[in-house]
Amino acid sequence: MKLADYSYDLPEFRIAKHPPEERGTSKLLIYNQGNIGHHNFGDISQELPKDATLVFNDTKVIPARIIMHRDTGARIEIFLLEPLRPSTSHEVIMTSEKTCTWKCMIGNARKWKENTTLSHPTLNFTATRTGKDEVTFHWEEFSFSELLEEIGKIPLPPYIHRDVEEEDKDRYQTVYSKMNGAVAAPTAGLHFTEKIISDLREKGVHTEYLTLHVSAGTFQPIKTDNITEHPMHNEQVWIQKETIEKLIASTQTIAVGTTSMRTLESLYWFGVRLEQGIEEFYIKQTDPYTFSAVDKRKALQNVLDFMNNKGINQLGGQTEIFLYPGYQFKICEGLITNYHMPNSTLILLIAAFIGDDWRKVYQEALDNDYKFLSYGDSSLLIPKSNN
Predict the structure, then answer these.
(1) Residue 141's pLDDT band (boundaries 50, 70, 90)?
(2) Residue of 129, 82, 79, 134 lying closest to 105 (CA atoms)
(3) What is the Cα–Cα distance from 245 to 193, expressed in whole angstroms?
(4) Cβ burial 131-148 (10 Å sphere, 16+ → b, else e)
(5) What's the topology of domain 3-61+172-382?
(6) Residues 322-353: pLDDT tens digits?
C-alpha cells in the first residue's frame, strides 16, 4: 500500500489559522453512503438519527510548552510529551507536588547540556535535563497542573504558523474537556457548544464520553513509502464501565473525532485479546491485522466481564492502533471529523472508513471553500454498508 495514493493538493490559504468568530458556526459536509450535502454545524442535531450514540473525547489540552532561558540568553523550549515519574498516568502526575519528570521534546537542545539546570526568572521553578529527552522539574508551590497554568503555553499545531493568542486558551479546547493530559485538541469536538449538545439530547441522541490523551505523535509524518511500515505512536485511553454498557445497547455509534474512533476500535480489540486470555490493555498497531475478529457485542461483553471480575468502574490502557485501508470497523457506524493533512495517518483512517470516496469528499470540500485542519470546518461521514 503506497503512501502516494493518499495525497492531495492542500493550498496554504485553505488551512484555518484561527477558529470561526463564534463556536458552532462552521460548515458541515455530510457524506451519507455516497451522497453529499452541505449544511451548517449548528444544525447537526437535525441531521442525526434519534437514538444514535455520539461518543466524545473529554481530554483537556495542557499548556505543554514551557519557555526557559539560559544565563547566556539562549532560548530553550521544553515540550511535554509523556509523564514518566512519579507516575505515567496524566491524572496522577498533574496533581503531583514539588517534583516530576517528563519525556520531552527540547527545542535548541544543543544549547542545554545534560545534568544542567535552568531556573525560571520569577517563580521558584527549575528544569534539569536528566537525559536526552528527559526533564525533571522542581518547584515549591502548587500542583503541577496549577504550575503549568502559570508558566506553560497552549501547543498549537505546527501548521498554524503563528504565536498563541488569548482566544486559543478557550477555543483550542472543547467545551466538555475535563481530563488533563492532551498536547493536541480532539479537534472534531471544537465545533460543539453547550446548546448544540443540549439540542442533541433533546432530540434523543445519546452522548457518551471517553478519554484519549492526544499526543504529539498525531502530527508525526509518515516517512515510509509502504504505509504499513510506519511506526505508530501510542496514547493513553480511559473508558467508564457505564459507557461500555451503553455501547453494547447502541444501535448506531458515531465517533466524534478520530481519537474517539481509535479508542472505540481499541476497546473492541481489547475484548478480542481477552478472548485469547490476554489481560493487558495494550493494543499494538498490528493487532487488528493478526487477531481473528469476534462479534462486536461479544468483545464488549468480554471487557465488561473483565471489569466486573476486577471490581473496577474505569478501564485504562494504551493504544497504538493504526487504521488504514483494508481495516473493517467494528464499533463505529459514523464519524464526525475535520479535514486532515495529505499523506497522514488520519487521512488513511478516513480512506479506511469511507473507501475511495474520501477523494470525492475532499474535492467537494475544496470546491466549496471549506477550511481545513484543526480550526477548520467539519464533516459527518456515514460509510456505504460494503466499506
Answers:
(1) confident
(2) 79
(3) 26
(4) eeebbbbebeeebbbebb
(5) QueA-like (3.40.1780)
(6) 999 999 999 999 999 999 999 999 999 999 99
Task: Give the domain 65-153 fold.
Answer: Thrombin, subunit H (2.40.10)
What whole-number distance in Å separates Cα of residue 312 and Cα of residue 324?
Answer: 32
- Name the strand (E) or helix (H) holding 119: strand 117-119
Proportion of the chain above pLDDT 90, given as a percent: 91
User: Residue 386 — pLDDT band, cuts 50, 70, 90?
Assistant: low
Total-model pTM: 0.94
User: 86, 207 in Cβ contact below 8 A?
Assistant: no
CA 275/CA 131 separation, integer angstroms: 40
Here the cell at position 111 is 544549547
Nearest-angstrom CA–CA distance, 339 and 369? 12
Q: What is residue 164's predicted lDDT score, i.e. its pLDDT?
A: 93
